[in-house]
Amino acid sequence: MPPLTRRSFIQASILASLPLATTGKAERQSPATTPPAARPAGGPAFNPAAGAALRWLDGAVPALSAGATLGLPWPKGAFLGGQSFVLTAPDGAEVPLQTWPTAYWPDGSLKWTAHALPAGAGLAKDLVIKPGKAKPHAGHMVRVQDGAEAIEVDTGVIRCTVLRYGPELIRSIRRDGREIARAGRLVALTDDQPDASSGTVRQTSHESAVKSVTVEQNGPVRAVLRIEGKHRSGQREWLPFIVRLYFHAGAESVRVMHTFIFDGDEHKDYVRGIGLRFGVPLRDEMHNRHVRFAGEDKGVWGEGVRTLTGLRRDPGAMFRKAQVAGLPVPPLEQMNKQVRERLHLIPAWGDFTLSQLSADGFQIRKRTKPGHGWIDAAWGRRAPGSGYVGGVSGGVAFGLRDFWQRHPTQLDIRNAHTDAAEVTLWMWSPDAPAMDMRFYHDGLGMETHEDEREGLEITYEDYEKGYGSPVGVARSSEITLFALDATPSRERMAQLADFVRQPPQLVAQPAHYLACNVFGGMWTLPDRTHPLKARIEDELDRRFDYYRSQVEQHHWYGFWNYGDVMHTYDEDRHTWRYDVGGYAWDNSELSPDLWLWYSFLRTGRADIFRLAEAMVRHTSEVDMYHLGQFAGLGSRHNVQHWGCSAKQVRISAAVYRRFYYYLTADERIGDIMRELLDADAKLGAVDPVRKLKDAPPAGAYPVRAAFGTDWGSLAGNWLTEWERGGDKRYRDKLLTGMRDIAAMPKGFFNAERAGYEPANGHLHNMVGEDVQASHLNAVFGAVEIFAELISVTGRADFEKAWLQYCAMYNAPKDLQIKTLGKSHTGTNALRVGHSRLTAYAAWRTQDAALAKRAWREFNERPAPLVRTVRVGGPDVLNPVDEVAWLSTNDTAQWGLAAIQNLALVGDHIE
Q: What is the pTM of this model?
């Protein structure tokens, strides 16, 4: 950005002070420009014809690929919707590829595409996806036969039969004509009491009842089936589930994405276990049957069902070595006669369990059969969650991702001594206490909004009776099943476990994302060419590294917790305020999700991606509601993720989900974003400002909505649906709101709290000529979403209103009065975070003086550098590295301001 003259600065200031009434002239579309950061630093402009260079997220080429899916952006106008693409390896060979669009620019050109690779393909560096006509690959196809009673999917290696109705999700998985797995179904256990302290606990068993199966993709490289139903026990059906089955051409595996939604009574329904169960036919002799469990650091626990080692009489070295390796033992005629004639006297072990009841300990037990005692077999710290049961002629390897992180979990193998073993992957272990989802206190006497405001004053908890309900929260889990034609070697078992633990992910280079100007374009690649820029870059790294360490040191793990971070620290107790009202779990407060995703885009760091991935899985499922009275809304930060009475669209917003969806084409996240489209219909019944003393009366309008925390979040939902090619009604509601804000006399300063009509999307000025602002309106994705809206729509009137807000929010009071007629009502809170608004206005108006002001605002309260202090001994339970002054609010907003200021006004850094 070139330096500006005093004259151009004055012209820009005059522009900002002009009235904002909408006229035909104001409605003209301004050219959508791209920030200077939209090209890689020091690199050439992006050439779409050259395609996108890919890399494996975690660095090394994976040892195993069961198929891969990734998302790629493209510059506006580069490719039409029907464009085909090819994937080439370094040697020029073409890799089979399936492509589909996931988003479009307003001119109809491709914005994002998704691409699927077959199993075993692309295991190389320097892969490139580029425009071209893909060649047919007859040997790498997945075929789907859609029948009236069942659907059969053939990957070329396995055949999977899925029934349309009944208790079974998977009827069978066959390989080379042999059945490897059968009768795959969901199971659940519930107790009617949280524990036995209140008397006898009655337990009920449930299993899946399939209601519908939909073929979402049918090849040629990738096929996806969506299965919906509920858990059934007798006449009762509840706990709705959505299960997707993923198949890739050439794969010997099935990926299972399992989601359940809690719709019971938390005072009566205590989930004791929930899992996936299937049978494994066994044909081999018991000494040729094997069980495997993966351990830490590529360790493997492996034993035979009938062991041939450690006996009083030696069967022979070849027999012992073969069994330990999982290979067929030599013919029994070659075995020591003293052992061969007494094989029936060696116990056959039928049941095995690996349970991970905490983040730091797992146990393996086994027994011969029911009715007999369990024997402790092995222990470890953190299991990756994979196992195997079968024989030398084949069996099933299975794994549950994030196994120890989402404790309590469990892997069960039963009846391995019979002709059909049974495997259950427990997403909640029945060996652990039942889920207790009740609210954590009795209300403390709070009966009125006045009482609740008093509670907010002391614990920062926004309590309201009946609002801390878990009804409608969900959790998704990822399972992989491998239909193998032989017992895997120990080395291969470790590979399978690594695949389950951290599935290989292809991504583009950061420069590619940047050049395509996606997600607002307000970021750049790391730049350390200036000492102050280098200091900011180093601090961005330190802050992420600190939060990554806090996940481990404070054990932010567990089924309902993993993926979230805490809100505020307690320096007296040397821990985060896990038990203090609104200071506990963060629930996306002030956009840590955005901080992580923009950090990944600009750096490409795998550890940032993995933390952001865990966060989006958590916040999309646990921190928002998927059915019931709060469906489509999220819960503000609290001791329990669903505990706060502030049920708002600012938490559930698609702005936090869309990064992961577009980068991975994940269908579950795509579903969730569509659940949000009519969340505005809830705002009347669940009024976001019902407790505020000074909230303006709704008057003639159904809803009182803030432009940032409410309408801005809705705008992100609707923009995402528009670019996904969905229902145009949401585009129209979006454009309606943009016009209405621009038409208000003071623009966004009139929309701090506006009248809103969910039926048509209209916003109305409720404050007349007053000038109102809130420090919260810009910090839940509004800055980023509004930049995108301006870029893709080119609406000059909306842009003018937004630039005025950006320039005036942090402006000196006298300039506010001169420009707006009076100073706005906002506080001085979050001025550092708002410096990026000043930077945005400076960049759009090419105002050098405003750019320098942005840097002064960023630095006026210099944030101390993150320097940890080690606390140990009797002051803490476990040693911790502490930065007592740091909060997640400040970290997220400082991080976003740093990233965006560097991109927008980096040339004016002082």
A: 0.95
